Amino acid sequence: MRSIAAVNPKPSTYLLAVLPFVVLVLIAPQAWSQGSVPPGNRFVQFDAPGAGTIPYAGTEAVSINNRGAITGYVVDGGYGSHGFLRKADGTFAVFDAPGADPVVGGTYPQAINENGVIAGVSIDTHAVIHGFLRDPNGSFTLFDAPGVSPGVGNYLGTQPLGLNARGEIAGVYEGGDLVGHGFLRAPDGTITVFDDPAEGVGANQGTWAYGINDRGEISGAVTDPAGGSHGFLRSPKGAFTNFDFPGETSTAFNSALINNQGFIAGYYATSTGFVAGYERNLDGKLTSFVPPVAAGPTAVWTFGLGSDGSALGRVNDKNSLGHAFIRSPNGKTTVFDVPNQILVGNPNSWGSELWGKNEEGVIIGEFIDSNIVVHSFLLIPEE
Which CATH number goes with the domain that contains 98? Predict the structure, then answer.
């Protein structure tokens, strides 16, 4: 349901090569539930103040911390985009980052850490993307990665995508040459731009950092000079480890989340163009997975990774309806629809999806209702 390039800088244009330890899992022990949530969970729908009630407006939660604070963005009745913070007590603060033009661009939080610091994207009236930090007291810091010629408009610039407990930020910088570069912003504001040694420097090539954990490990994807795509893990000292799916000749890593244990999860496009989910364990073993749905799957997006290694996201069926899924570390997958979501798919609607899970087991997600309005929700484990 994301509406800006900043959320996923590069769509399915990457190619993959080869590495050992891959398991393809299309059918494993599964559960299916339509119109309800997994047993033992309480469903709580919420909408941020000012959320529009027209098609594709509404509330989109993207990140939850272990204290139960949630951030995301709210689209109003004029399609203006604003950031929000939902505190654990259910109260809201809606905000605009400095310089953000709510209509041309807007404010798009991407992550919240344990201290309540929020990192995200501010898009100005010229469609240039800037990074921002919002402190718990509500003050903002805008920043741009150095050393790369900026693009004017075209939704190029500095895109924070990952934030850890120390306040370190990982993300992507894309300038006018359309080459992607990873960056790491330290808590003191120092920014280090980095490139995977395997990267190419042509348009739509480069290094794309998506996640960072509390140890300072960064996950992402790189495109090489031949157009091949590889996942990567960058150590705190700057060393790169690349990984690929063997046997694939035309694939694309589009997401690479990492948790504090070092598990990586995301989604990728196979050589046939099918989008599947994947996980990489601590031994480097890659597992591709496709949660089954009644009408047959057409695409899988992994948007969240729990501290326990569980993957979360959305699987679309052949009727263009999206269903939320949770995949546990042992491979058991639950696919379900939440209350109030649209139950008739079309090319412009998604159904439901999950975006995060904290250490308390609380899950955040969002869904589209029958009026094509977006709402967010919590799944809270019942005691």
Answer: 2.130.10.120
* pLDDT of 149: 64
- Is 61 within a domain? yes
Three-state SS for the chain is: CCCCCCCCCCCCCCEECCCCCEEEECCCCEEEECCCCCCCEEEEEECCCCCCCCCCCEEEEEEECCCCCEEEEEECCCCCEEEEEECCCCCEEEECCCCCCCCCCEEEEEEECCCCCEEEEEECCCCEEEEEEECCCCCEEEECCCCCCCCCCCCEEEEEEEECCCCCEEEEEECCCCCEEEEEECCCCCEEEECCCCCCCCCCCEEEEEEECCCCCEEEEEECCCCEEEEEEECCCCCEEEECCCCCCCCEECCCEECCCCCEEEEEECCCCCEEEEEECCCCCEEEECCCCCCCEEEEEEEEECCCCCEEEEEEECCCCEEEEEECCCCCEEEECCCCCCCCCCCCCCEEEEEEECCCCCEEEEEECCCCCEEEEEEEECC
pLDDT of 65-78, one tens digit each? 999 999 999 999 99
Whether the pLDDT of residue 124 is over 50: the answer is: yes
Please determine, for residue 319, whether its predicted confidence score (pLDDT) is greater than 50.
yes
- pLDDT the model gives residue 354: 98
Query: Is position 74 within any domain?
Result: yes
Between 188 and 274, the higher pLDDT residue: 188
- Residue range(s) defining the domain that contains residue 326: 15-381
Domain presence at residue 7: no
Number of domains the chain is built from: 1
User: Is residue 9, in this structure, part of any structural domain at all?
Assistant: no
pLDDT in tens, 40-56: 999 999 999 999 999 99
